[in-house]
Amino acid sequence: MAALGDVLALTGARTREVAPLAEARELSIELPSTVDATDTFTLDLTRYGATRLTGILGFDHTTDGSVVVTVAPTTTVSAAGVLTVTVGAGGDNRTRAFIIWIR
């Protein structure tokens, strides 16, 4: 397991705010193909005006950009509003994507 740190500072990661004006916000995060099962990354929810995780859906590209399966990441949110995501099971060195709902 590697602690990848802040996803906004991670080389090759892309974070997009899909619904920026809604009460609940939706973020789309894609991590580079160097991510392994059980790696972790963090996201400061307060940068988006949020403190609460509403839901998360994870994806694993078993064949990059072609075959995509869902995975179950695990999460924690600190009192300071920092979300820590542990990548779900699967292989190593694969592209991972997440849809995260926050408020």
Task: Please report which band the strand proportion falls in: under 5%, 5-15%, 15-25%, 25-35%, 35-45% or over 45%.
Answer: over 45%
- What is the tally of beta strands? 9
Return Rg in Å.
Answer: 13 Å
What summary fits the major beta sheet?
A: 5 strands, antiparallel
- Which structural class matches the secondary elements? mainly beta
The total domain count is 1
Q: So what's the overall shape?
A: globular
| pLDDT averaged over residues | 86
Low-confidence stretches: none
**Strand sequence of the main sheet, in spatial order?**
2-3-9-5-6
Query: What is the helix fraction of residues, given as a range?
Result: under 10%
Instruction: List SSEs in N-to-C order.
Output: EEEEEEEEE
CATH topology: Immunoglobulin-like
Tally of helical runs: 0
State the CATH class: Mainly Beta
What is the rounded distance between the termini?
29 Å
CATH architecture name: Sandwich
Question: Layout of helices and strands, plus pairs?
Answer:
Layout: E1 3-6, E2 14-17, E3 25-35, E4 40-44, E5 53-63, E6 67-71, E7 74-77, E8 82-86, E9 94-102
Parallel strand pairs: 1-4
Antiparallel strand pairs: 2-3, 3-9, 4-8, 5-6, 5-9, 7-8
Summarize the structure in words.
This protein has strands at residues 3-6, 14-17, 25-35, 40-44, 53-63, 67-71, 74-77, 82-86, 94-102. The chain starts with a strand and ends with a strand. By secondary structure, it is mainly beta. 0% of the residues lie in helices and 56% in strands. The chain has one domain (3-102): Immunoglobulin-like. Strand 2 (14-17) and strand 3 (25-35) form a beta hairpin. It has a 5-stranded antiparallel β-sheet, with no helix packed on it. It has a 4-stranded mixed β-sheet with strand order 1-4-8-7, with no helix packed on it.
